[in-house]
UniProtKB/TrEMBL annotation:
Molecular function terms, GO-annotated: NAD binding; phosphoglycerate dehydrogenase activity
Name the record gives this protein: D-3-phosphoglycerate dehydrogenase
Organism the protein comes from: Anaerocolumna jejuensis DSM 15929
Coiled-coil parts of chain: none
Assigned keywords, A-Z: NAD, Oxidoreductase
Pathway: Amino-acid biosynthesis; L-serine biosynthesis; L-serine from 3-phospho-D-glycerate: step 1/3
Amino acid sequence: MSKYKYNCLNPIAKVGLKLFSEDYAKIEDMKEADAVLVRSASMLEMELPENIAAIARAGAGVNNIPLDKCAGDGVVVFNTPGANANGVKELVIAGLMLASRNIVGGINWVQTVKEEKDVAKLVEKGKAKFAGKEIEGKKLGVIGLGAIGVLVANAANRLGMEVYGCDPYISVEHAWNLSRDIISVKSKEDIYKECDYITLHVPLLEDTRKMINKETLSKCKDGVVILNFARDLLVNDEDMEEALKSGKVASYVTDFPNEKTAGMEGVIAIPHLGASTEESEDNCAVMAVKQIKDYLEHGIIKNSVNYPDCDAGTFAQGTRVTINHKNIPNMLTQFTGVFSAENINIANLINKSKGDYAYTVIDVEGSINSGIAEKLKTINGVLRVRTLS
Ligand SMILES: NC(=O)c1ccc[n+]([C@@H]2O[C@H](COP(=O)([O-])OP(=O)(O)OC[C@H]3O[C@@H](n4cnc5c(N)ncnc54)[C@H](O)[C@@H]3O)[C@@H](O)[C@H]2O)c1
Ligand SMILES: O=C(O)CC[C@@H](O)C(=O)O
């Protein structure tokens, strides 16, 4: 019988699933699963069975997962930072071109004349109405300089654009990767004021929700192009419609069409294809599966969005107890007290915290009785205890 069971809420690339050994079984019913792999399926309204210890989002955005609820239930949620960034970057560059040259209009028009006699002549005659602009020399504002934003900024800069970037929380790693040619601005106001094109690469959070709205659009240049390859709710659709009608916005390129924007005049709607490449899907699947395996087999946490990362090292012998708990005083004293009461020597102990939650790994030599885990579970603030042996 398999030691671990996992459930996939979306199709996950085979190259990732192949990394699961014979210790793992893929099951259709989430009720029995130890781990769940997901892409864009919404888990917000789902009842999560108690046995689920981990969820891996094969992708970046985690707004489809109830992160706080999961943390409170001791469920570690992972994502795969950067694994699909190149795929998205390439489509953003395509989006810049689609908005600047009337490629879609032109292609559609050719189809309307394809049965005519002298297509080549008609094309030459009719092409003028699809003339566009070049992006070279224009100003691009990148809001959010994470894995995708940095790649977009650098690529647009190489294409001859003058690039402004804004990210008050930029990580050291991403700052290192940002070309020195990018003009780093402290406030988004500078981007709104200066840029001909604005591209969004921030997560959907309370403070980014509907960040593009009547007020922010009014600060933009007339004829600005907005690109949204991040999440639809970053933009107020009603305000966008008004801005497109008035010409304030020349074009809105979105990878997240909805009932409102799919048929809206001036919108270039792409069916969420940013990460839909073989390479991105493979990268995400591999990273997600490795993280799930490391967690289930060794208690290692890497790239979690609701628990601290914790490299406890490979679990090889003896017993490892992992504890997901609230980040409150006195927890370690109580944990070690349970072991010392049984006269068990702790060989190694790691404790990490992130916000309201913490994670402790305790290694002991030899085996322990199940009563230890039961006692740990009764400590106020303990959310989940796993025993690896
Ligand atoms: N279209 C797609 O298929 C696709 C694929 C991947 C990611 N995404 C979306 O793109 C988003 C970004 O992805 P990523 O991989 O670059 O993530 P990331 O976490 O590497 O980067 C996000 C960046 O946004 C910054 N940020 C957060 N709040 C901000 C704010 N208020 N103002 C400015 N910057 C802010 C963060 O500091 C971080 O650097 C994801 O959250 C997801 O919603 C879409
Ligand atoms: O899984 C996908 O296809 C899209 C993923 C993307 O939206 C993300 O946030 O990583």
